[in-house]
Amino acid sequence: MTRRVVGTTANPRQKKIGNEELENWLAHLLSPRVDFRFYEWEHQGLRMVLLQVQPAVGSPVALKGTEWIRVGSIKKKLKDHPGKEKELWQALSRLSFEKGIAAPDATGDEVLSWLDYPKYFELAGLNLPANRAGILERLATERFIVPKGGEHFDITNLGGILFAKSLNQFDGLARKALRVIQYKANDRLATIKEHVETKGYAASFEAVVDYINDQLPSSEEIGRALRREVWLFPKIAVRELVANALIHQDFAMTGTGPMVEIFTDRIEITNPGSPLIDPLRFIDEPPQSRNEALAALMRRLNICEERGTGIDKVIAEIELYQLPAPDFQATPKHTRAFLFAPRKFAQMNSEARMRACYQHACLCWVMNKAMTNATVRERFGIEAKNAAVASRIIAQTVEAALVKPADPGSKSKKHAQYVPFWL
Asked: Domains in the chain, ordered, with CATH?
């Protein structure tokens, strides 16, 4: 190999497939979509073209629904080479979204212009460095940028998704902006307003949670001498579930992002990606995230819980407000959390009552207690004279295999204790 520069006659910016430009044609046929760019210049009087492609994270990239791999000098379908496919999956599993590049080869000025670095120093409790070099050095230490020598840096997905002044500045992150949609009723037929938060998650978190809470219905509670505004949904519960949706989403999924939908009778908080643990175990299991660096930094900046107790707080607040139990649902592509507006006990169906009973048993267990008829009555606001009603709820939940007696040999019904099924 002589490595002699020979140049090229290729002109990708003018190339068309049918009536569509090559870049656009490639972009909408790739799944998941990856950032790629053509660079053109002259070297030694010869035309040069470079195609820069962002590496895949989590899964191979398919063209028209098919993954391809080169075997020797021949292009082959990946599915026809299971050994190669296994090696590829092993390699992809070592990559993470956070290490991906959101903006390559940015100048120092562009870094400081595109990232809200003052907000990072504020959240981290650090003094802003006195000079530009100190700021860039700190951003590099946090892996928000990667120095490339001189005045050039790669901005990582971690830096962009957390502290972008505008996610629209980064092609691969724009669709990950949090959407907040408010509907007129309890269906999706009529929308009142929609807000797309284009700032990075950390830079905008407090503001976006305040915005969501401002859209929630409230009522005026009259006490003995004072009036006070009572929110139909606990603010802590909203905050924790929004943080979870941002942190635990699957960034490899394209065409979708985190979303908060506000109805008159509920809130639905959705994020891309099915959960890594069973939704029934959200309360007690240690947290698992596809995005460990993102989760760790969000915890360090006090945006989310450090030890995975966020869902515990949600359940505790819901019980304090005596609201219907939240529901956590998993689909093949999404995770969804539901918060429900106040509902009288008589209006709850058996499924809602059993869900509340199970979550109550889990909360009791993590608080080193056991669920009893008395605690269930307190949870639902049932009077002591109606203890039989609480007993029926417990019996239904036992029959559904969600809770079980702590001591199967005990004959006492009045003082019986119950624990979650997984103990």
From this structure: 16-93 (no CATH), 101-172 (no CATH), 177-342 (3.30.565.60), 344-423 (1.10.10.10)
